[in-house]
Amino acid sequence: MISVGMSLSLRELAASLRRLTWLAWLRMLVATFILPALLALILARVFRLERSELAGIFLVGVAPGAPLLTRNLAKKGFDMHLAASYQVWAALMIPVMIPITVFCAGKLYNRDIWISPAALLGQIVIKQFLPLALGMVIARVAPERSKKYQPTLNTLGNILLTVILGLALFKLGPALKDITPMLPVVSLLLALGCISAVWIIRLSDPIVRKTFAISNANRHVGLALLLSGQYLHATRALPAIACYALVAPLVMIAYVWWYRRRAPVQQDPVGEARKSPA
């Protein structure tokens, strides 16, 4: 997140947030928080998931904005500032939308579940906003040094991420053995549904649409895991969450490949045909 912050301009980030109208952001609210959560409940019912599996896949559906993707989007031809604006917006909405969505879903199962907005805000501030702000301050105060040391910081970040993912997979080993045959199918359909939700709301700007679609599939599995233990007391929700964590990156890679192959020819404002950036 510090590295992402060092790559961002506050002016460009604000411009990206203003790129969408209030109505468009309202539609994104539905596509980000409501449709994935609803799809998770439907998939759990259709595929007859156990209650713990339901809890895991549902919490994945309500928790957007994982911070691991933003930096890499620019390398894939997507707009990194748009991805960052989505992440900032989703983080701001999490303390509002997750308690409401989880409470309403709990009522469907005759349970009263209330997640503290303050606790969610604390998680978001400490793990996303502060590192992001620190990176942006470094870039503002020492722009030359920031550019000089950023490649090193990126390398260290990638090494650290690789080590953590390796340790996580080792730690999740026993849980991965409990994945039932239907969980990969449900995870695949949920990831595809998150991408489709953004396309369904028909955002007018194609760059916004393709960037937000892949960002929406990048659900916050770490937050889902935290909530499953603290609030739903679903100790066996881990296999479902881990399954999505493994399946979603494959779906996002396939989405990038598909969009590059698709590369539609569009008309610019003066009517000159041009190929859209992949």
In short:
With 278 residues, this protein is mainly alpha-helical. The protein has 12 helices and 2 strands.
Topology, element by element:
Blueprint: H1 2-7, H2 10-18, H3 22-46, H4 51-62, H5 70-73, H6 80-108, H7 117-141, H8 143-176, H9 182-200, H10 206-217, H11 221-230, H12 238-262, E1 265-267, E2 273-275
Antiparallel strand pairs: 1-2
Helix pairs in contact: 2-6, 3-4, 3-6, 3-9, 4-11, 4-12, 6-7, 6-10, 7-8, 9-10, 9-12, 11-12
What keywords describe this structure?
globular, 2% strand, mainly alpha, Na+/H+ antiporter like fold
- Look up the CATH topology: Na+/H+ antiporter like fold
Q: What portion of residues belong to β-strands?
A: under 5%
Counted by DSSP, the helix tally is 12
Number of separate structural domains: 1
At CATH's second level, what is the architecture?
Up-down Bundle
Question: Which CATH top level class fits?
Answer: Mainly Alpha
Shape: globular
Largest sheet features: 2 strands, antiparallel
Order of strands in the sheet with most strands: 1-2
Our measurement of the CA-to-CA distance between the termini, rounded to an integer number of angstroms, reads 25 Å
User: Could you tell me the number of beta strands?
Assistant: 2
Radius of gyration: 19 Å
Notes on the protein architecture:
The model is unreliable at 265-278 (pLDDT under 50). The chain has a two-stranded antiparallel sheet with strand order 1-2. The chain has a single domain (2-262), classed as Na+/H+ antiporter like fold (Up-down Bundle), CATH 1.20.1530. Helix 2 crosses helix 6 and helix 7 runs antiparallel to helix 8. It is an all-alpha fold. Helix content is 76%, strand content 2%. A hairpin with a 5-residue loop joins strand 1 and strand 2 (273-275).
